[in-house]
Amino acid sequence: MKVLYVASEAQPLAASGGLADVAGSLPHALRQRLIGCRIVMPLYEKISEEARAQMRFITSISVPVAWRRQYCGIFELKSGGITYYLLDNQYYFKRNELYGHYDDAERFAFFSRAVLEMLPHIEFKPDIIHANDWQSALVPIYYDLFYSKSEWYQGIKTLFTIHNIQYQGKYGKEIIEDVIGVPLRDLPVVEYDKCVNLMKGAIETANRVSTVSPSYAGEILDPWFSHGLDPILQQRSWKLSGILNGIDGERYNPETDKNIYANYNSETFIQGKAANKKALQERLFLPVREDVPLIGLVTRLVAHKGLDLIKGAFDNLLANNDVQVVILGSGDWEYEQFFRDLQERYKGKIVSCFGFVPELSMKIYAASDFFLMPSKSEPCGLSQMIALRYGSIPIVRETGGLRDSIRDSGDGEGNGFTFKSYDSGDMLGAINRALEGFNNKEGWNILVKRAIESDNSWGKSANEYIRLYKEMLK
């Protein structure tokens, strides 16, 4: 079986979020199970010179983009046992940021069309094209409209994965012919709620649709979570599967991670985590105390991450508990300002670091005793899995992949602390239960060891994708 994995970003070449982690690890897990999986992505400006030096030029082609044709260079890179195809067009991709440009619709229309135009020019004809999120939503749409009846392309199946339904690729209908090149007669394929909606079109045209956790697959049928797409998903629910993401156990490994202060494993974590906590406290000018519970947050500072619950509860938490909190993230001004004010009022208890600092994020995972994720919605979430791997006990709201990966330890067998309602009081209750658990050192050490030994690797998830691929090919 041959799978072409289409992603707008992938580790280790270019990344802005969780999609890159998935694209950088799932294909490896599939290959380990004897699935021929290759990745295709844009050749961005930020791809390193080291990677570029290893690329092999295959050919150049002319790609139709609505009424014009654009150059596309096809490069091949073999790295870590995976073959990457990188599609080059400097007009579209020689930019500082991956997304957020005025012409993103055109950029990713080019990319999606180029993926399909590329196929006859490489020695790899896939059985499955696996597209991801709105940036490659046009791949199943274009395949259905323009390629599926062509003799060379016949028989290819398409899978579309929704990583976050909030971002749908919505544009005005004026782009239909001049930008994405879909004839007006086919407008109903991509039209939804009086605009062009690329994710809707992919749901309509792909053979199957998946999302990144079983719980999220159920939630997006509900208007509360679906951002308007629930009627379409309900009509196409027979297409929908939920498969929980995993993490790369080698990349996220406290025993070998060079970004943390001291390495450790499930046998040596007591000394290892203590050393990491002490070093982080020194770096961030917090009182150096091993006995104080340290809560970490590494998050985007936006509403759906549950920041409103934190605003409603953290004065109470910090005023009434002997605790330290470290935040790393960036986002909406109101939340950044809230944490600045909180830090000023509770000096020595809370430190806020604004921005995206990968090495610091890993130090927080390794040093913290708890990792807080009170999300309003969380399609899968990788942070709670990384936290487990580093022995930082997750405190999460039961939604999406958080519900599927974290089980409350109140039964003596779980790996974290959970709460159900989107309510500051319920979140504070879970935190207080967690703080009580921290003080029971014998039980606490059992819980941390269980967390570190939790299996959130891609093995089970890769097997589920293979089963889905096989169903599609029947």
The CATH superfamily of the largest domain bears the name Glycogen Phosphorylase B
Radius of gyration, in Å, reads 23 Å
Reported for the largest beta sheet, the result is:
9 strands, mixed
Structural class: alpha/beta
Number of strands: 18
Poorly predicted spans? none
In CATH, the architecture of the largest domain is 3-Layer(aba) Sandwich
* Distinct helical segment count: 20
Shape: globular
Amino- and carboxy-terminal Cα gap: 12 Å
Describe the structure.
This protein is of the alpha/beta class and 474 residues long. It has 2 domains: 260 residues, Glycogen Phosphorylase B (Rossmann fold), CATH 3.40.50; 184 residues, Glycogen Phosphorylase B (Rossmann fold), CATH 3.40.50. Helices cover 40% and strands 20% of the residues. It has 20 helices and 18 strands. The strands form 3 sheets. Strands 3-4-5-2-1-6-7-11-12 form a 9-stranded mixed sheet, with helices on both faces. A hairpin with a 2-residue loop joins strand 4 and strand 5. Helix 1 crosses helix 20, helix 4 crosses helix 5 and helix 12 crosses helix 15. The model has no long low-confidence stretch (mean pLDDT 96).
